[in-house]
Amino acid sequence: MTFDVLLVDDDRDVLEALEARLRIAGLRVKTCAYYIEAVDHLTPNFPGCVVTDIRMPGKTGLDLIAKAVAVDPELPVIVLTGFAETDTVVKAMRGGALTVLEKPCPMEALLDALTQAIAQRAAVLKTRKTRARRAARTSTGRLPKDLALSPQLAEYEGELIRRALKRNNGNKAKTAQELGVSRSQLYAKIKGLGPEEQ
Q1: How far, in Å, CA of 51 to CA of 29, rounded?
Q2: Strand partners, 94
Q3: In the chain, where are the structural domains located?
Q4: Residue 148: pLDDT above 60?
Q5: In CATH terms, is domain 149-197 a member of 1.10.10?
Q6: Residue 29 CA to its chain's centroid (Å)
Q7: Rounded CA gap, 14 and 92, in Å?
Q8: Could you tell me which of 100, 50, 52 has the C-alpha nearest to residue 75?
């Protein structure tokens, strides 16, 4: 299941109340009471953000921030704590927290912070996806399947290449020049046409 917010707090009453309010606001929420539960959900392409308390039994929210940053430095973490002393806030922010909110926190303030964090995360993941597609295109000379043109257009392109090759008696350098592409691009396209064209 995909969720927008990983909510971590060892106080079950707080956890349940926050979960209910966030779900009413239209967010998908996954709750965890401890660090050990939460870390299993942290992945490099985690789609949302983390909201964590600081003081918890065992490893703390500061440990969770450190783990989140280690997994993905661009994963937004919001700290929601009843102990927002200056030292704690400084440690959290230096550790990589996006913001620190003090309990009891007005729901509007939390929702504003979440909206910004989720939008920021979506932008980061979109940029990564675009870069990965460009890298795939550059390395193979062709578009990944999910970015490929329609089969009809791909077939038309293949036919243009075949005809140009025939006109140039199979001379790939002349064909590339005629089609206005680099030799490496043409070779990659020819490779995609099948062994009979190579």
Answers
A1: 10
A2: none
A3: 5-137, 149-197
A4: no
A5: yes
A6: 18
A7: 21
A8: 50
**5-137 against 149-197: fold identical:** no
| 156 against 49, higher pLDDT | 49
Strand arrangement of the beta sheet that strand 5-8 belongs to: 29-32, 5-8, 49-52, 77-81, 99-102
DSSP H/E element including 49: strand 49-52
pLDDT at 42 over 80: yes
Angle between helices 172-179 and 183-193 (to 10 degrees): 100
Fold that domain 5-137 belongs to in CATH: Rossmann fold (3.40.50)
H-assigned helices in the chain: 12-24, 35-38, 61-71, 86-95, 107-140, 151-167, 172-179, 183-193
- Give the relative orientation of helices 86-95 and 61-71 as an angle to the nearest 10 degrees: 20
Distances (CA, A) of 31 to 8, 44, 54, 103: 6, 19, 15, 18
